[in-house]
TrEMBL record:
It catalyses: Preferential cleavage: (Ac)2-L-Lys-D-Ala-|-D-Ala. Also transpeptidation of peptidyl-alanyl moieties that are N-acyl substituents of D-alanine. Residues 320-427 form the Peptidase S11 D-Ala-D-Ala carboxypeptidase A C-terminal domain. This is serine-type D-Ala-D-Ala carboxypeptidase. Removes C-terminal D-alanyl residues from sugar-peptide cell wall precursors. GO terms for molecular function: serine-type D-Ala-D-Ala carboxypeptidase activity. The keyword Oxidoreductase does not apply. The lineage of its organism: Bacteria, Bacillati, Bacillota, Bacilli, Lactobacillales. Substrate binds at residue 266. InterPro entries: Beta-lactam/transpept-like, Peniciliin-bd_prot_C_sf, Peptidase_S11, Peptidase_S11_C, Peptidase_S11_C_sf, Peptidase_S11_N. SMART domains: PBP5_C. It comes from Liquorilactobacillus aquaticus DSM 21051. Its EC number is 3.4.16.4. Belongs to the peptidase S11 family.
Length: 446
């Protein structure tokens, strides 16, 4: 009786397998979580600043950070955000480079304050957008950038509101913005932001400033043609003002360093902020952005911010290697995905496109830890549904390094790359499918 029952069970199973063509068992893939054991703050680098950050200008990878999320006064580095909106207005046809714009009362009054960084504007004179743009970036002219703000949106308040909107669109939600120039709200007369504290000042984090600078360089790289100018004269109608760039790391200025060909971006200085500097350098074919906030500022001749920036830039180039993860790279432990009803039950996986990454010296791409996840929209049951064309995007490869923590300005803590199958997978015929189902049945039975 026992034999009869078992035979009956086998026959019934064969019928079910033949009619339903049950799926064969596919391969198995793992989703490995890799956690870094270090941070982006290296204790061997001692920077005498309140906060700092170094990032790759292209990818946004954070190479170094110190208190990078702390909100601090940024002073005139605000102008980088203002200039972004000016360049956007020019691109959209709302302004033109040779367009002459009048000077409003608030901007005029600020421009006459010799205790602030300014070119003296005249009430009865119109200036070209190009003149005001150059004065804003090279000489940090406060009245000039205020005049540009009025030309774009009609008032200081309207311009600041647009600045706030732009930051929110970039997922910067911790900013405190009140002025277009970076001056305190109590320093711009009738242009002050309404219903705000008199002593209100612009505050951002080092990470925020790095992201603003990255956006500016990516969307308007031509800005470097102006930020790299060491000296220029400003013609205000009856006289000229000699403008020497406040970025003393530029070639020919006090803190230039031949090993670091700095070509931007912007300083910021105030009693509350101390000395700030957002810098950028293109060396060995790769550009980085650095931000230092709250460096010492004993007097107007103090070069501390540039010395700290030089230390930070040198640290990056001396301790990290710019490395390319090439397309079609395979990683151990994350090199295959299961296939449903394919002639082959697994398909080989590699990176679909290349990417760049700064790795600590001595670390190579082969040292990276990878985890693999398949695109479930392409799955049927437990595998990618066959047929599969070669080089189809079938999932995501997530890369981490055990020797350093990967961080990016967009908030990601890992490098994610599209994964592709390296071979064409045809669908198995009905007999192969039936055979696998029967084999699977007997395997599970015994």
């Amino acid at each position: 009786m026992l034999i009869f029952k078992r035979t009956k069970k086998l026959l019934l199973g064969l019928v079910i397998a033949a009619t339903a063509f049950a799926a064969a068992a596919g391969g198995i893939f793992t989703n490995e979580n890799v956690k870094a054991d270090t941070t982006t703050t290296d204790k061997t680098l001692q920077l005498d600043v309140k906060a700092a950050i170094a990032v790759d200008a292209k990818t946004g990878q954070i190479i170094y950070s110190k208190n990078a999320d702390q909100i601090l006064p940024v002073a005139s580095m605000t102008k980088l955000l203002s200039i972004y909106l000016v360049l956007q207005a020019i691109k959209e046809g709302k302004l033109s480079w040779d367009q002459k714009v009048p000077v409003d009362s608030a901007s005029y009054q600020v421009s006459q304050n010799t205790s602030l960084s300014n070119v003296p504007l005249k009430k009865d004179t119109k200036y070209t957008v190009r003149q005001l743009y150059q004065a804003s970036l090279i000489y940090s002219a406060n009245g000039a950038v205020m005049t540009l703000a009025n030309a774009v949106f009609g008032s200081q308040t309207a311009f600041v509101n647009k600045m706030r909107q732009l930051l929110k669109s970039w997922n910067i939600n911790d900013a405190e913005l009140y002025t277009t120039s970076g001056l305190g709200n109590d320093e711009i007369g009738t242009g002050k932001y309404p219903n705000a504290p008199a002593k209100a000042q612009n505050k951002l984090s080092a990470k925020d400033m790095a992201l603003i600078s990255q956006k500016l360089l990516q969307d308007y790289p031509e800005v470097l043609k102006t930020t790299s100018i060491a000296r220029m004269k400003f013609n205000n109608g009856t006289s000229e003002t000699e403008m020497e760039n406040w970025n003393w790391m530029l070639k020919g200025l006090a803190k230039s360093y031949s090993e670091l060909p700095v070509d931007g971006l912007k300083t910021g200085t105030s009693d509350s902020a101390g000395a700030n500097f957002t810098g950028t350098v293109h060396k060995d074919g790769h550009r980085i952005i650095t931000v230092v906030l709250g460096a010492k500022h004993a007097n107007d001749e103090d070069t501390s911010r540039f010395e700290q920036t030089q230390k930070l830039m040198s640290y990056v180039y001396n301790n990290f290697t710019y490395t390319t993860v090439k397309a079609q790279t395979k990683f151990k432990g994350a090199s295959s995905l299961p296939v449903y009803h394919g002639k082959k039950l697994t398909t080989q996986i590699a990176t679909k496109q290349g990417s760049d990454i700064w790795l600590k010296n001595g670390t190579s791409v082969s040292d990276l830890k990878a985890s693999l996840s398949g695109n479930k929209k392409l799955y049927k049951k437990d595998g990618l549904e066959a047929p599969l064309a070669k080089n189809k995007t079938v999932g995501t490869l997530t890369l981490n390094s055990k020797d350093q923590q990967l961080e990016y300005l967009n908030g990601s803590s890992k490098l994610e790359l599209p994964a592709t199958n390296t071979q064409k997978i045809q669908k198995a015929n009905i007999f192969v499918i039936m055979g696998r189902a029967i084999k699977n049945f007997f395997t599970n039975l015994f």
